[in-house]
């Protein structure tokens, strides 16, 4: 222990290295550079990062990724050899990974934001209350967490250097990162989810986000599942926004390990956005064309596993409408010089929830993952395909199923699910048949409306509109939703998930709300804000609204509102569709519009109380006055109902 600590104590894990370039060059060459890449061509900051990481993690060799087809093949071969993936011969270039059952979702409780002052990272909760809007770690504990885990963590392994761009290469809205990892699964996934490889190295200067990732090495020395090494006991995900630094240890799953996604594009991204005056949000972006030919773009923030991918790829049931996809998870949005809000999707692929996805609910997602896709924790079929809950009608009776643990599984016999509820497909965006022609436009697409929404089984109507921007910000801040399988939360409790950003905030939530309020300046065209809820349930526990493609009926009303049609009634909570303004023609099932739009005084009095409690206990003094006033306004209106 002492020996290790002594050795690493000479390394400062930061980018202010003073060692000169030629020395670094020699040091890097003393590792075996697996693909013969000449590190001399790299900017010194990049070399410093690689060198510091290599000295800390002690890999056997370093591989600087070029993103090529041949490199990807090598990665896939390596993973097949180690049993991390198996091929799915039913499709074209598709693969299935099964993880250690202890590494299946994001771990929010082990995700930290590091700042000198705690209140810069998180709101200070009321005495005796546990804060739920992010976890803070001190710089000292941050360093210690790294030194407790990383020294020698890559021994016997290859260290991959993954240069990637969040956003189209060269767009002014894009940002560059380098992820260092010892997981070929992460490399192959990053190649799908981001623009990755030599073309990024060509653009790189000293301004990039440093992402260090190791799957780790359990302290016990016992590796339970050699095909999926991880260290769940010591998993930790660290962010230092002012240093543009992300450090992740112990997990290879999704947002824990594909560091461009939640860690960079949302947590570090939201902090950069605050500094630079734009928004980094957990939002899908879609384009919708109405039968009259007018096209609008809409962004929507729903919490994890609450319908973003489905809405982003929707097949409208209303005739004459067309939806096209710009992105399904993250939006970076900035006002242009004409005061128009423009959005880019910083990602290059989809890491989508598999269960529930089918040709009935989301045919475009099904088509997207027929080739070049890595599936994780879904079930497999005897004819070399995939299976999950929701695909019951799509497989023949002669086909047998192997569940995500690798055990034989029979529907109606086994009382488990065949696929893990957070099982996913990782597929390139370009495979989606309805990608928008402007999805890679470096200028971004113009946003006309922002939707908030969550899983609310009761009380919250199908759709309502905010009275103005400020009211909309309050609605976003008050969002709540049923917990899902995307993180470690158990059960179906209704949790606060403001702006769908609770797990992804990069700084103090009160300051984040103030930043949203500050976006409203003279000369800017503020998008209209709506709240939607596809998840109302009847007394029988069934959804009251058919959802999926039928959500086009709600988008139709939203489009009418964007065009200024007066198709609304004013209520205490906001503007709701006036009677007959939501089209129901051609709907295959009866829907109870009364229940879908019921605004119950008792329910909303309770809701207001709950929001007030949330503000007081969780946000405290950091709550902007304007948001407090909006809640008071809501309270008064509800009391007068
Ligand atoms: P993340 O990738 O975790 O951020 O999730 P997401 O917000 O993209 O959610 P996604 O679209 O993958 O949907 C998650 C689950 O919700 C799936 O099982 C869907 O089948 C289900 N779902 C999506 N849209 C609807 C809808 O309109 N109605 C109902 N009832 N379920 C839906
Ligand atoms: C989410 O949880 O919101 C996801 C999946 O999109 S992950 O990439 O694991 O964060
Ligand atoms: Mn998401």
TrEMBL record:
<keyword id="KW-0479">Metal-binding</keyword>
<dbReference type="GO" id="GO:0033993">
    <property type="term" value="P:response to lipid"/>
</dbReference>
<dbReference type="Pfam" id="PF00821">
    <property type="entry name" value="PEPCK_GTP"/>
</dbReference>
<keyword id="KW-0547">Nucleotide-binding</keyword>
<keyword id="KW-0456">Lyase</keyword>
<dbReference type="InterPro" id="IPR008210">
    <property type="entry name" value="PEP_carboxykinase_N"/>
</dbReference>
<dbReference type="GO" id="GO:0005829">
    <property type="term" value="C:cytosol"/>
</dbReference>
<dbReference type="GO" id="GO:0042594">
    <property type="term" value="P:response to starvation"/>
</dbReference>
<keyword id="KW-0342">GTP-binding</keyword>
<dbReference type="Pfam" id="PF17297">
    <property type="entry name" value="PEPCK_N"/>
</dbReference>
<comment type="subunit">
    <text>Monomer.</text>
</comment>
<dbReference type="GO" id="GO:0019543">
    <property type="term" value="P:propionate catabolic process"/>
</dbReference>
<dbReference type="InterPro" id="IPR035078">
    <property type="entry name" value="PEP_carboxykinase_GTP_N"/>
</dbReference>
<dbReference type="GO" id="GO:0006094">
    <property type="term" value="P:gluconeogenesis"/>
</dbReference>
<dbReference type="GO" id="GO:0004613">
    <property type="term" value="F:phosphoenolpyruvate carboxykinase (GTP) activity"/>
</dbReference>
<dbReference type="InterPro" id="IPR013035">
    <property type="entry name" value="PEP_carboxykinase_C"/>
</dbReference>
<feature type="domain" description="Phosphoenolpyruvate carboxykinase GTP-utilising N-terminal">
    <location>
        <begin position="48"/>
        <end position="273"/>
    </location>
</feature>
<dbReference type="InterPro" id="IPR035077">
    <property type="entry name" value="PEP_carboxykinase_GTP_C"/>
</dbReference>
<feature type="domain" description="Phosphoenolpyruvate carboxykinase C-terminal P-loop">
    <location>
        <begin position="278"/>
        <end position="637"/>
    </location>
</feature>
<dbReference type="GO" id="GO:0030145">
    <property type="term" value="F:manganese ion binding"/>
</dbReference>
<protein>
    <recommendedName>
        <fullName>Phosphoenolpyruvate carboxykinase [GTP]</fullName>
        <ecNumber>4.1.1.32</ecNumber>
    </recommendedName>
</protein>
<keyword id="KW-0464">Manganese</keyword>
<dbReference type="InterPro" id="IPR018091">
    <property type="entry name" value="PEP_carboxykin_GTP_CS"/>
</dbReference>
<comment type="function">
    <text>Catalyzes the conversion of oxaloacetate (OAA) to phosphoenolpyruvate (PEP), the rate-limiting step in the metabolic pathway that produces glucose from lactate and other precursors derived from the citric acid cycle.</text>
</comment>
<dbReference type="GO" id="GO:0005525">
    <property type="term" value="F:GTP binding"/>
</dbReference>
<dbReference type="GO" id="GO:0046327">
    <property type="term" value="P:glycerol biosynthetic process from pyruvate"/>
</dbReference>
<keyword id="KW-0210">Decarboxylase</keyword>
<comment type="similarity">
    <text>Belongs to the phosphoenolpyruvate carboxykinase [GTP] family.</text>
</comment>
<dbReference type="InterPro" id="IPR008209">
    <property type="entry name" value="PEP_carboxykinase_GTP"/>
</dbReference>
<dbReference type="GO" id="GO:0006107">
    <property type="term" value="P:oxaloacetate metabolic process"/>
</dbReference>
<dbReference type="GO" id="GO:0071333">
    <property type="term" value="P:cellular response to glucose stimulus"/>
</dbReference>
